[in-house]
Amino acid sequence: MTAKRGRPRNMETQNAILAAAYELLLEDGFAAVTIEKIAERAQVSKATIYKWWPSKGAVMLDGYMSILTARLPVPDTGSVFKDVRIHVGNLVQFLTSDEGKVITQIIGEGQSDPILAEETRSRYIRPRRREAWEILEKGVKRGELKEVQNIGLYIDMIYGPMWYRMLVTGEPIDETFVELLLSTVFKGIGSEA
User: Fold this and answer.
1) Whether 57 contacts 115, CB under 8 Å
2) Which of 38, 51, 169, 193 could form a disulfide with 186 if both were Cys (CB 3.0 to 4.6 A apart)?
3) More confidently predicted of 71 and 109
4) pLDDT in tens, 113-128
5) Could you give the angle at the alpha carbon of 111 between the alpha carbons of 108 and 112, nearest 5°?
6) Average pLDDT over the chain, rounded to whole?
């Protein structure tokens, strides 16, 4: 999402901008944050931000992503069920936190900003999907899961209900829901839960 123009970025300045964008996103919400507020918080000019990011959405997403990656490690316990349970558990814990709920604002903003929507898909959704794909693929190779034609369908079956609850119904995404969801899905795809 970042533009490559002019001199290389000063990492200290970049980190200050990303931190400011992230902090303001949590404090005020996506709609209330402006480039002016980010510049003021980071103690940089608006021109510096626009030199490195094409829009408010771009810098906000980068600020959010800079924190997110460290919060969602990919497990490798040797058991597909344990790995998925940990991965889903980490995701649920994050999504139900104040920090995680911000993604709904970003997704919502993306409905009227196609560039932000595509960046969210490419930088947030697809990487999480790749992680899940790798976990499930290992399970297939180890014989824990049935051979499949479409691992993507398994991913949709596991992760889709969480996003549906978060973005549509507002029903709780708690441990009871996660356990029931995973045991039901894994019975259907052939793993011993």
Assistant:
1) yes
2) 193
3) 109
4) 898 899 889 888 898 8
5) 115
6) 87
